């Protein structure tokens, strides 16, 4: 599978999600559903890498993508008074997307997947709730919070379908992307819950920047090792390193084998 085919499949999954949650008023008055390209890539990674891929797995992957869209919609709600019409509709959109994935899960009658996904949603929600708790989190605890938020749903999908050998690569890559976004937000003087947690123990912006930069360098090296462990082919490596994770600090040219 070449790079263009991989991108086409990701776009196809994105369109499927949009169709599943389409609602005229919400489409017109909110930003609409959104799922990060990297999350769709890792949902489809086993398929890209030639693993056995059934219609049931495709349906489960689409459902997980809709859950990500629902949680993202709730994340868009800002803490402000009075609540605007857009904010109210954004909450409704998240609830609507949630209803769609509950419906799809019920139709699938895949009880084990329902249980795994429900557990993952609880884990993500608990970590997001920790943003508003007074207890300090050390940087390693903040990293655990970010990792659960980024990867719990994907791990549920991997565990259900026997794809846990991609777990390490997926977690390292999504954490790398999250830290890249956090570093950019820090440099631009923007607020994020993760940066606020870091600031409670690292105090100064320079220390936070140094910590994030060091972790990005380390994660970049770990990703290269994990890619080789997963035995991804050249095209898949290329798409992952240069399109899905385009800002790797330690990115290096790939050499086609053979």
Can you describe this structure?
With 258 residues, the chain is mainly α. The chain has helices spanning 3-20, 24-29, 37-48, 55-75, 85-108, 111-129, 139-161, 167-187, 193-202, 205-230, 234-244. It is globular. The two termini are 17 Å apart. The relative contact order is 0.11. The model has no long low-confidence stretch (mean pLDDT 86).
Please describe the topology of this protein.
Layout: H1 3-20, H2 24-29, H3 37-48, H4 55-75, H5 85-108, H6 111-129, H7 139-161, H8 167-187, H9 193-202, H10 205-230, H11 234-244
Query: Main β-sheet, in a few words?
Result: none
Give the SSE order as H and E letters: HHHHHHHHHHH
Q: Note the beta-strand portion.
A: under 5%
Describe the global form.
globular
Structural class: mainly alpha
Average pLDDT over all residues: 86
Question: Which quaternary structure do these chains form?
Answer: single chain
Number of helices: 11
Report the uncertain regions: none
| Count of strand segments | 0
| Proportion in helices | over 70%
What attributes characterize this protein structure?
single chain, 74% helix, 11 helices, mainly alpha
Short description:
By secondary structure, the protein is mainly α. The chain has helices at 3-20, 24-29, 37-48, 55-75, 85-108, 111-129, 139-161, 167-187, 193-202, 205-230, 234-244. 74% of the residues lie in helices and 0% in strands.
């Amino acid at each position: 599978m070449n790079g263009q085919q991989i991108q086409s499949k990701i776009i196809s999954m994105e369109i499927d999600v949009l169709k599943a949650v389409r609602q005229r008023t919400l489409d017109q008055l909110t930003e609409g559903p959104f799922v990060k390209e990297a999350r769709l890539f890792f949902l489809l990674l086993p398929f890209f890498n030639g693993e056995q891929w059934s219609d049931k797995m495709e349906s489960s992957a689409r459902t997980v993508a809709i859950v990500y869209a629902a949680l993202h919609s709730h994340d868009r709600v800002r803490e402000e008074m009075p609540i605007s019409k857009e904010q109210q509709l954004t909450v409704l959109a998240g609830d609507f997307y949630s209803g769609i994935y509950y419906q799809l899960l019920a139709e699938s009658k895949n009880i084990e997947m329902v249980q795994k996904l429900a557990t993952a949603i609880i884990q993500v929600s608990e970590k997001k709730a920790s943003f508003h708790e007074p207890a300090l989190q050390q940087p390693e605890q903040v990293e655990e919070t970010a990792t659960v938020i980024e990867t719990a749903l994907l791990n549920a999908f991997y565990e259900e379908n026997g794809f846990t050998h991609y777990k390490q690569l997926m977690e390292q890559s999504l954490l790398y992307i999250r830290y890249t976004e956090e570093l950019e937000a820090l440099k631009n003087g923007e607020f994020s819950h993760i940066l606020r947690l870091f600031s409670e123990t690292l105090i100064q912006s320079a220390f936070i920047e140094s910590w994030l930069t060091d972790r990005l360098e380390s994660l970049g090296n770990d990703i290269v090792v994990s890619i080789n462990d997963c035995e991804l082919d050249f095209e898949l490596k290329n798409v992952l390193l240069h399109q899905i994770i385009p800002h790797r600090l330690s990115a290096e040219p790939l050499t086609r084998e053979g």
